[in-house]
Amino acid sequence: MNLSLILDVLPLLADSMVLTAKLTIASIILGAFIALPLSLMRASLTAFLSFPVLAYTFVFRGTPLLIQLFLVYYGASQMDWIRSSAAWFILREPFWCALIAFSLNHAAYTTEILRGGIRAVPFGDVEAAKALGMSYALRTRRVVLPAAIRLALPAYANEVVLMLKASSLASTITLMELTGTARKIVAQTFSPYEVFISAAVIYLGITLVISYAFAHLERHLAKHQQRNAQTGMFWFAEMIATLRPRLRGSVSR
């Protein structure tokens, strides 16, 4: 293994890392905006609202992302009405096609993750909000969604990491992101081992940053639970200290 080649390739791949980060972040943000209302519909007990979302998530979770990407990039060009419309100015660019495919796929997984978080919100919290006279929109915004997001955060962190790795598929539609640039350098240097190790190191670095950020966010959102646990332990210790003299007196008798 040529260590000097790995060090020489890293700066070249770092430039393409910007495009990978841009595509991943944009897909995550757009997918989250799509998933938020869909998760509320998916968690609804009304079949009229939940069934169309179920069909959407089933299709996008049940088919490979690569096929979805090809359908958007190659399939759109086969339709005359798309080529003659204003949408063709977007769909003819590989970046926008990748963004659309990745966002729709990410939204499908995020919808199911948030739906699980919404269903896991304690029933008593929702009933307490109803007892206070909160409307559906108010208790969803103040009670349900904050608790659901906190519960779904670990699973969502894994989905973000998977989205980062899935961005490498954009190289199949001529988008020169991190993996695409690595393949180009391999064709020039005939050194796939060193080049792909360099790309893997960069992916690992980005994954480490994402994992650390979500771990910090989880600790921040769980502060109130730690305070409640500390308060409960303090109350329990005080109760034991109060009862101890009485227990000793009863034993001496």
Task: Quickly describe the structure.
The chain has 253 residues and is mainly α. It is 84% helix and 0% strand. The protein has a domain at 18-177: MetI-like (MetI-like fold, Orthogonal Bundle).
What does this structure look like?
With 253 residues, the protein is mostly helical. The chain has a domain of 160 residues: MetI-like fold, CATH 1.10.3720. It is 84% helix and 0% strand. It contains eleven helices and no strands. The radius of gyration is 25 Å and the shape is flat. The mean pLDDT is 86.
Give structural attributes:
253 residues, MetI-like fold, mainly alpha
- Overall shape: it is flat
What class do helices, strands and sheet pairing give? mainly alpha
Order of helices and strands: HHHHHHHHHHH
CATH superfamily of the domain at 18-177: MetI-like
Q: Report the sheet with the most strands, covering strand number, pairing sense and barrel closure.
A: none
Which consecutive residue ranges, at least 5 long each, have pLDDT under 50? none
The percentage helix is over 70%
End-to-end C-alpha gap: 81 Å
How many extended strands?
A: 0
